[in-house]
Design goal:
Blueprint (H helix, E strand, L loop, with lengths): L1 H15 L11 H9 L5 H14 L5 H7 L8 H9 L8 H18 L33 H17 L3 H15 L6 E2 L11 E2 L16 E4 L2 E5 L16 H15 L12
Parallel strand pairs: 1-2
Antiparallel strand pairs: 3-4
């Protein structure tokens, strides 16, 4: 499945970014593999759809219908585009999208009623803002990826149901990594100004705009926020760059930017 996500990403980049070249024919063996055992999957659907758009190969339409996972926020753009081009036999995406977006948003809001509007990363066996260590004795991981993934999902919902509480949720999660937290600490590199929150330093040299793993709990039994000073870098991963958190931040911002606030005035074009 990870291969499908990477392949879909390359095809999307090649469609929209002039400097990215991807020979769609190279993906044909993967398409044939999926065709041999088709099951509903958002990432397989995304791969095949973007392959179709890159090659104009409409023969994969039947396969797309077999792979259609239903309403999935991760691939709403692909689903809407496929519906718009009549590639799907079950053309109900537009009808169902609002209900699906509101359902996901309600779950996210339910887990963000505490201080700072922060998303609760763990619900069971007991609610926690920060994840517990993966194994005994391991350090607690930072929560940047968890809160920014929640922000991205809410941003997807906000595009189709623009409620003010959804936007407040998104801002609360981004504010957390930018420094509005009990530690007054910005965990996005190169962003904090001289009069703003403290700037967390990464454990390795990275460019500006990279999100670190971020703030974690003090321990498995202590859910208070904590971030190591430089003397503890070797004992914790909080200062390590997080590609997934950075990915979620960029996606969140892109979804907000793509919201059409006002219909264009065709007479002024």
């Amino acid at each position: 499945m990870a291969l499908a996500r990477v392949a879909a990403g390359l095809l999307i980049l090649s469609r929209y970014h002039p400097d990215v070249k991807a020979d769609a024919a190279l993906f044909k063996p993967l398409i044939d593999h999926i065709r041999a055992r088709p099951v509903p999957s958002p990432w397989w659907f995304s791969l095949v759809w973007n392959y179709r758009q890159s090659t104009s190969d409409v023969s994969v339409n039947d396969l797309l219908n077999l792979l259609n996972p239903g309403i999935r926020l991760e691939i709403l753009d692909d689903l809407l585009e496929a519906e718009g081009e009549s590639a799907l036999t079950d053309a109900s995406v537009t009808v169902e999208i609002g209900s699906a977006a509101n359902g996901v948003a309600a779950l996210l809001l339910k887990r963000s009623s505490g201080a700072f509007g922060l998303y609760q990363a763990v619900e069971k066996p007991a609610p926690r803002f920060f994840a517990v260590p993966a194994s005994a004795g391991a350090p607690c991981g930072g929560n940047s990826a968890a809160v920014l993934q929640a922000a991205e999902y809410m941003a997807r919902s906000y595009r189709f149901a623009a409620r003010p509480e959804y936007l407040r949720f998104i801002h609360a999660q981004m504010d957390w990594v930018l420094g509005r937290n009990p530690l007054n600490l910005c965990v996005v590199t190169g962003v904090a100004g001289t009069n703003g929150p403290l700037q967390a330093e990464a454990s390795v040299p990275v460019p500006a705009g990279i999100v670190l793993e971020g703030i974690s709990a003090r321990g498995p039994a202590d859910d208070r926020p904590w971030f190591p000073d430089t003397s503890h870098v070797s004992e914790a991963t909080n200062r390590a760059p997080s590609l997934s958190a950075t990915f979620h931040l960029f996606n969140t911002l892109s979804h907000l930017k793509r919201i059409r606030i006002q219909m264009p005035d065709e007479k002024k074009r």
